[in-house]
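Lecture 7 notes: from sequence to structure.
We start with the chain below.
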Amino acid sequence: QVQLVESGGGLMQPGGSLRLSCAASGDSLAHYVIGWFRQAPGKEREGVSCISSNDGSAYYTDSVKGRFIISRDKSKNTVYLQMNSLKPEDTAVYYCAADFALDPMYRVVSGLCTRTANYLSWGQGTQVTVSS
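Predicted structure tokens for the same chain:
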């Protein structure tokens, strides 16, 4: 089972940028869908973005479209989330998760990759705080 470690969180002013990293070990990500989720205090965990590690297909939830970019580096077995134009409402603990999928591209393009129940492997989370 793949193990995941997130990094890159921190405190940023509104309008700023952060890049989160999700480093995987224990297995190649070649057949996985990697999802980024976030959970703010008192709220449910929500899917933010996800990517098919095989072909790079990506999905974004409406609230981050045009601001966040998900990418992967196969050589480093790492997935990134570039977060631009940050807003206070982006404040949350961000988690990455891995879903071993036989149909990764379909799960991504359909948006099914935002369902937390699909994922067995989760990172420990990294805090992102957007505040002036």
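Points to note: The helical segments are 104-109. The chain has a mean pLDDT of 95.
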